[in-house]
Amino acid sequence: MIEDKKSKNLPWVEKYRPSTLNELISHEEIISTISKFIDEGQLPHLLFYGPPGTGKTTTILACIRKLYNPGEFNSMVLQLNASDDRGINIVRGQILTFASNRTIFSGGGVKLIILDEADAMTNDAQNALRRIIEKYTDNVRFCIICNYLSKIIPALQSRCTRFRFAPLQPSQILPRLEHVIQEEKVLATEDGKQALITLSGGDMRKVLNVLQSTWMAFKDVTEVNVYTCVGHPQKEDIKNIMNWLLNVESFEETVREIKNLKTVKGLALQDIITEVHGFVHRMELPPRVLCMILIRLAEIEERLAAGCNENPQLSSLVSIFHTARDLVTIEN
């Protein structure tokens, strides 16, 4: 009864997290390779990298269940996350102590140290880790997990077997999404499911989190409700914005209309630019004009990422399309 209550209160992303390697829905080559390593007792140091929500942590947690009995987890596995202090003192203290202590209950197995979100570690800490990895290889295996491979020093990369976890394909996400919808008895339309997959960008965690949020807010998971829940522009909103950008002659009126829409709907300019970018790619434009638009959109996106105010960037967005209209007229 207590287990059922605990399971009921779990977020769906944790409630439906795969617990074994066989339950994982993607990266068959990676899973089969790691399974073979474990079966043959030849597990190397591992480096998992790729975007969030692609199964990196879930994979190593499934490996733990295959490697050890439940009673051995505390003595055989050390897991450190980005929320933990992982400066040079932790590497020389907690990690070194765990790696150097052998256990008599493992039946000759190796310990496992998991460094999740390792791209948050300082360079000094990563450098201190190099010697520990080499010195205690007979006793310990490391699994380093990160989003950005470039933030892991080359010396650590060369000591590990690297696996890239690519964003999930819609065909991989959909069966798992259908399973959760069926288990939770959620009313979801086909366009609602498609909206979830489109917004996720291959992130399974985001799919389930947005699904649960939309269900709790609206009960019906439709395209409109999904976009409303996350504050993403609706398709009709983008059509209106593109109509103003392409057809309204007055610069001031275009800025005013888009600003009013942003205020009423609570839209972020970053999301608008993302949708405008996709819309532009579907338009038939002279190559020179298309290149100009894309370069300028990228510049606005860079300025927004750096923390610039949205109002001047909105004016810059409108100016792009006024310039583009003039260029198209000249070329014709």
UniProtKB/TrEMBL annotation:
Pfam families: AAA, Rep_fac_C. GO terms for molecular function: ATP binding; ATP hydrolysis activity; DNA binding; DNA clamp loader activity. GO terms for biological process: DNA repair; DNA-templated DNA replication. One of its GO terms (cellular component) is nucleus. The keyword Nucleus applies. Residues 42-171 form the AAA+ ATPase domain. It is found in: Nucleus. Keywords: ATP-binding, DNA replication, Nucleotide-binding, Nucleus. InterPro entries: AAA+_ATPase (IPR003593), ATPase_AAA_core (IPR003959), DNA_pol3_clamp-load_cplx_C (IPR008921), DNA_Rep/Repair_Clamp_Loader (IPR050238), P-loop_NTPase (IPR027417), Rep_factorC_C (IPR013748), RFC_lid (IPR047854). The keyword Nucleus applies. Belongs to the activator 1 small subunits family. NCBIfam families: PRK00440.1. This is Activator 1 subunit 5. It comes from Phlebotomus papatasi.
